[in-house]
Amino acid sequence: MSTLMNVPKDGQASKNSNVSHRGWSNWIDDLFNTDPFPSVFTTNFNTGMSLPKVNIKETKDDYFVEMAVPGMKKDDFNIDLDNKVLSISTEHKEETENTQENYTRREFGYSSFKRTFTLPESVDDNKIKATYTDGILTIQLPKREEAKEKPARTIKIS
């Protein structure tokens, strides 16, 4: 954080002061750019949860999108395809109530996210499959036949 300037009781800064004076906006910038704030302010406040980690891999026949989303049920997900844009979203609402002798505690929880991916033209839209196992959502994106790698071959000269 920036160093604040010492000002004597008469309100006048010393002309011989070696302390540099930085403006209010610089001080605010320093406040929000020091720990622990960066991790707090880079999260997505609108979603109630951070975006899940994603692995994308390619094989000779398919692309795979694997998303780590533990604690969900397969019914919590919405997977949509619109004009070569794959959208994966979820909304999860949770309400618990704990009643003991003379008090009741109710807690509400809400979490959601939405991730979108633009698919390459080589994906066969009609054969996309999704599975959810052990906290991992896997979406298989098969390639069109004409986009699949062909084995090497030798061409004879006639």
Automatic annotation (TrEMBL):
Keywords attached to this entry: Stress response
Positions of the CS domain: 49-155
InterPro entries: A-crystallin/Hsp20_dom, CS_dom, HSP20-like_chaperone, Small_HSP
Pfam families per UniProt: HSP20
Domain SHSP per the UniProt entry, residue ranges: 45-158
Origin: domain of life: Bacteria
Entry keyword ATP-binding: no
The keyword Lipid biosynthesis appears for this protein: no
Similarity-based family: Belongs to the small heat shock protein (HSP20) family.
Protein name (record): Heat shock protein Hsp20
